[in-house]
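#structure-requests
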Amino acid sequence: MRVAVIPARGGSKRIPRKNIKDFGGKPMIAWSIEAAKASGALDHVIVSTDDEEIAVIARKHGAEVPFMRPAELSGDYAGTTAVIAHAIQWMQSQKWELEAVCCLYPTPFVLPEDLREGMKVMQDPKWEFVFTVTRLDGPVLRSFQIHPEGGVEMLFPQYLETRSQDLPAVMHDAGQFYWGRPSAWLENKPVFDRHSFPLVLDNKQVQDIDTMDDWRRAELMHQALEGKSA
């Protein structure tokens, strides 16, 4: 059985009610629910939340909310791995035979075909996780910081004389989804490790949404993408 778990607590601080705030004509969480269901790669789409309003909206858009997340996993410092492990433990209590569990964040940029591709990669037993990444803009290994006493200092001085085109590509987490084996989630294995496969996305499809400036930028990006696909 393949299951998506969408973590969506109610206490978002930087953008209040972020998970159900209207984005492009529907609640933010609806985009991920609909992409998951459209992917054809999942047997269940579950939302893990501590918030009744989020639960109602999630169900309205086709997700299941078979349990409410406990308070100890709903605070500002609750880790995502613990939230997914809690959901897996509930599934196991229901005697579900799990093949893979996908942690899927509420985002308007996740695509059904990427979820399918991630599940396809998971067929290879050497991978514990498959997650989305994208390339960092600019020559990161030539970066520097402002020194507290004035001036600047390179973070990686060994690359001072290296041409930008000769530097290796540096990636970062795209923050969309993480396919993982149930045992990997339960054992709290690290995602950023050699046992994880990076599914590379175009950076035009990636945007963190932590502030209202991020939100406005994401709306413009999404409008551009929707216009391109129309």
